[in-house]
Task: structure prediction
Amino acid sequence: MGVRTTTQGVIGWREWVAFPALGVRAIKAKVDTGARSSALHAFDLEHFERNGMAMVRFQAHPIQRNDRHIVVAEAVLLEERWVRNSGGQEELRPVIETLVQVGKQVWSIELTLTNRDVMGFRLLLGRQAVRRRYLVDPGHSYLQPLSENG
Result:
């Protein structure tokens, strides 16, 4: 028998997600259990230091196919990590930790920052973010309600 995991519901292969600490009230996410880490579309990344802590400031376009709506966010830089992108290329990405909200659930995840302009979704929610929280139903979308923040 395998290890039994506790989940808090079912999500579809795409869901509305919020990042309250980053000022992102709603962003369409592709849930990808084939990807270990999560990735947020970010650009104009700027590394800096505040009170001895490594930080990163970045901009994001949370609305698909809309480059006019821009969110500017700052977060503590956890590390920079080599990640293999969907094209098989490795790239060094900044990694932050932030709160994510899917439906009524809010928890902390690691998030890599990369340019996803050419990708179909501005956010990829990987398996580390959803494990032990949700089961993924690949035949459905938007099974969780948009948060009251959205």
The chain is about 5% helix and 55% strand. Helices lie at 127-130. The radius of gyration is 15 Å. Residues 10-40+78-137 form a domain with the Cathepsin D, subunit A; domain 1 fold (CATH 2.40.70.10).
